[in-house]
Design brief:
7 strands, about 70 residues, elongated, single chain, mainly beta, three-stranded antiparallel sheet, two-stranded antiparallel ribbon
């Protein structure tokens, strides 16, 4: 079980997010695409240890592209 604070009065439910990654490498170049929370699920990621009402929501669907040059 997860709780919002040390008082254990507010229980935080479990959650599952679907993330994905693709990577392509050609010679010295590498390109990666990472996608997060593809189902756009709303969830509470964590609580603030000192209060039962300060809850941190999880992030929405997001993507990140990374390009690297290896030399």
């Amino acid at each position: 079980d997860r709780f919002a604070s040390a008082s254990n009065l507010v229980r935080l439910g479990g959650y599952f997010t679907f993330d994905a990654a693709l990577r392509y490498r050609a010679k010295a170049w590498e390109v990666a695409l990472n996608a997060y929370n593809l189902s756009n699920r709303k969830y509470i990621a964590s609580g603030h240890g000192g209060s039962d009402i300060l809850l941190l929501p999880g992030g929405p669907t997001a993507a990140q592209v990374t390009a690297r040059f290896h030399f």
